[in-house]
Design goal:
about 10% strand; about 50% helix; 5 strands
Length: about 210
């Protein structure tokens, strides 16, 4: 069934909302390529992620930073392999969330994407099949800001041409929903697609005048 929410823009996060988390197999593939114990790999992988997603650290320098922390060297070809394996690990799609995107589209509801992600994800978001669903795609690296900085939400509002009360934000991290709320944007912390669907259906029902 379509979801029609007149006058609203529903803005989605990507990772672990539209996509699934990287699988155990994905994580093991990275460790196998890196040839680094997981206790030396994952801390710098996450510690440097904000700089990568904020656009201040290049992809190459990101992997070199992980190598330095682990006390190893990555060849240029290994960096390419690591990037491909890591990139691929974030490309899975939750079909139930995707069906919600389609229901919003079919209901004529405006949809956009706001993701903390590196420059390399911009083309995938915009030019993969999913890109046709979004009115606008906002990528943190391109914006030089990260959620939950309130400035990123203000930029999204400005570019969409709406007021805060006209935007609904969906993200799996409560801190990012709180950042949106700080500028007056309603939001939903994503846990499952059925709960998201119920939230959006309730929002649609309250937005539709009683006959």
């Amino acid at each position: 069934m379509p979801i029609s929410i007149p006058g609203k823009v529903v803005v989605f996060d990507y990772g672990e909302v539209i996509s699934f988390s990287p699988s155990d197999a994905d994580r093991q593939a990275l460790l196998s390529i890196a040839r680094v114990p997981e206790e030396k790999f994952w801390p710098p992988y996450w510690a440097n992620r904000d700089a990568l997603d904020g656009g201040t650290l290049s992809i190459r320098d990101y992997w070199l930073a992980i190598a330095r922390h682990a006390g190893v060297e990555f060849s240029e070809s290994r960096i390419q392999q690591l990037w491909i394996a890591d990139y691929r690990s974030w490309l899975s799609i939750n079909p139930d969330t995707y069906d919600i995107l389609l229901a919003l589209r079919d209901g004529g509801t405006r949809i956009a994407l706001l993701s903390n992600a590196g420059f390399d994800f911009g083309d995938y978001f915009r030019h993969g099949p999913m890109g046709a669903l979004f009115e606008r795609v906002f990528v943190s690296a391109e914006m030089g800001r990260l959620k939950p900085d309130e400035g990123i939400y203000l930029e999204v509002l400005r570019d969409l041409g709406v007021e805060a009360h006209d935007m609904i934000f969906i993200d799996n991290k409560a801190v990012n929903i709180e950042g949106a709320a700080s500028v007056g944007i309603a939001g939903h912390v994503f846990t499952t697609a059925p709960l998201l669907r119920a939230y959006l259906d309730d929002t649609a029902a309250s937005a539709t005048p009683a006959s």
